Amino acid sequence: xxxxxxxxxxxxxxxxxxxxxxxxxxxxxxxxxxxxxxxxxxxxxxxxxxxxxxxxxxxxxxxxxxxxxxxxxxxxxxxxxxxxxxxxxxxxxxxxxxxxxxxxxxxxxxxxxxxxxxxxxxxxxxxxxxxxxxxxxxxxxxxxxxxxxxxxxxxxxxxxxxxxxxxxxxxxxxxxxxxxxxxxxxxxxxxxxxxxxxxxxxxxxxxxxxxxxxxxxxxxxxxxxxxxxxxxxxxxxxxxxxxxxxxxxxxxxxxxxxxxxxxxxxxxxxxxxxxxxxxxxxxxxxxxxxxxxxxxxxxxxxxxxxxxxxxxxxxxxxxxxxxxxxxxxxxxxxxxxxxxxxxxxxxxxxxxxxxxxxxxxxxxxxxxxxxxxxxxxxxxxxxxxxxxxxxxxxxxxxxxxxxxxxxxxxxxxxxxxxxxxxxx
Length: 424
What we know:
This protein is about 30% helix and about 25% strand.
């Protein structure tokens, strides 16, 4: 569910007219609903009531400090993949004891920071990472609680670029090597193996591949216990999908939680889950303004002020986002079919092909729905465009929670060498 709807002929976020935000902030800009973030966090918490579960929100989905602080207020932990995300989570008020550090390329400096902070768990993805973590922990006189992320060779995810659990993917320890690596972990100083981790992909609607992977992981954990390892935790990762368009019907959190309960029942495991998209995805929209139409022999381009640098999912994954006008369409209003594109000098700067919308005029404003996850976090300054601002709505009020930088701010990290400015 979400809290975006037409009221009095205008699209609102909770009690705020999105046109008022667009006028105050300018477009393109992201707008997030506090009520939706809170509701989704509560739905997941309720689904897992009765299980010993740590809900570690996936910061990579949307790392805005205001979003993180909202979720911290709901008791969420954090799944992070960099020192920056770790520090963001801590600044937002998430305790280190509720933070899990994932990712395939942790540096020694990041490991040291996480150890000093006292995080809940490292999800280790390779033998090289395990050995480096041992060295860092031993040097600091710390013990790193770890789970090995195993690759169960199970396909999932709606696009190859978001499937992470097949044998050819870069993520996780190959299935056949896992037990030997746990044996090595038991011999290494500064390492304490406490769990097994798996994450097979993103935007998963069907629970069947997840169940297959989780059953394999639980069986592995039980074998490891039989070999003397004190395995207490199963980290099931994230990946639960959301509805991006009409007809999408991903499994609800209640069914997901029930399946995990069945798979882990009777074994005394704590469960860690890392939801991201399912919390933030439908909690945000991207607002854009139509610049003009461009007629081609076989199509009409609708050119917006938002580009792939602001919302790259369609270019990166062929992803679909519903596009709604901020002015509610009237009965019988003319429709037109567009290729919806941005101003970026790339052929892939296209949000939709052959999309039928209520006819749009220059200056009309539109909302890309379900843009709260993997939107602003993936934005860039390509074509020397400023990073997109972000706005948080709470009932009938809103605040800019990341402002649009000026041109001077965007380039202040750069420098022209003196030899290029000094005459010969």
